[in-house]
Design goal:
Length: 483
Amino acid sequence: MRGGASSQPPIGQCIESLGSGNEMVRIFSHYLHRQTLLHVLFDLGLILFAVVAVVLSQGDSASSVIPFVASHGLSLAGCMFVINSASGLYQHVHNRSITESCARALLGLMFGLPLAYAIFSLLPLATGHRELVTMAAMAAVAAVMVHRVYAAHSGAQSRLRTRILIFGSGAVARTVGQTLKEADPHAQIVGYLAGPNEENPEVPLAEMIDSRGSLTETARSLGVDEIVVALSERRGGSMPLRQLLDCKLYGIRVVDIATHFEKTLAQIKISHVNAGWLIFGDGFNQGSIRTAIKRVFDIVFSAAIFIVSLPIMVVAAIMIKMESAGPVFYRQERVGLNGKTFKVIKFRSMRTDAEKDGKPRWATVNDDRITRVGRFIRKVRIDELPQLLNVLVGDMSLVGPRPERQYFVDDLVSKIPYFAVRHSVKPGVTGWAQVRCEYGSTVEESIEKLQYDLYYVKNNSLFLDMLIMFETVAVVLTGKGAR
């Protein structure tokens, strides 16, 4: 198959290279690692299997309560999913030490074991049977935690990676290769294949692949699962569309560079996206139903969090007042939905003379304007809790882009493409950028955060909101993340 016309492959061959490995799956517009999804299902199934199997082993005397046991098992499995998600045990992280994974697992056990005991102590079983099922449930919880640590460090995932061919050899292809290796050290990059008009490669020569006929023939002979089109030059016949279509018909995934970064890094790379891709692609669904669901979610959860955290806020207010003179709360104008301004409310974490010269300054990691109490409440996000009032009155959402000051917005809109797009949704107390990267105190760091914000605006859903809430808990527990 060269150049133009070619025969289509048989149907059986079209599906033979659909690929296994650790590819991404899309759930409610959000990309997840398939391996992560399989781990979640395995853990949930393990708990359910353990408790039902114990009941079945007791014979007919206990078989009548299987529906009750199964429902309790599902409840425990759901609780463990929340605990593991909040502990960060389902995050796709490659540089986490085994010590940190064990610490997170032990934290999960501290919550999971009492929950298992509480849930199964209510079963309508004879005392002996109930104790046996309860012990099985607690053992299953422990097994889930062991599996979480084992899965993260066994190296089994590295043997299931998708085989990726990068079609291109210029600066764009080099960027794709670098980001792939940073996002996943075990990524199986088969190599780089130069495009028709690319003569001076900017990628490692040792990783260049010699053509084995057409692009389709080369990809099939190498057992490629996915091709990332990263050509520096796309004009003058540089894009072999028919050959790329043939690859797709043979079951090889073909993605452009913008989609590659979206699914691999969960961000929209500004340097490799254009208005057409944003306009004609999917996403950016802000319909009335989604808006109504999100508002109900905001009211219910922000009210619940506010009530639960009220004692913490009282203690924080007392500590702030004892440390330094000045107001407990800090009110400041921020830019919200559709560019409308509002007054955000937070606990004061800086000195009262933080901007005595009247010039706005970005907060930084080791900002000397932050008080001792302020440093602690910022680290564990207590200073953000009063923003729940902004959520209840409708100025903010629980999840969304961080609200910025008008001074910074005016500056960043003039310097960064698509920055104003983040104002098409309500700002949030937490957000995708906040749980994914550190402080943004420069234009470059603001671009990095914007790329996560754009991903959220494009793919936002109740499912993604819940994932961000879980990851926020993990950030609070570990003291990591952005502000």
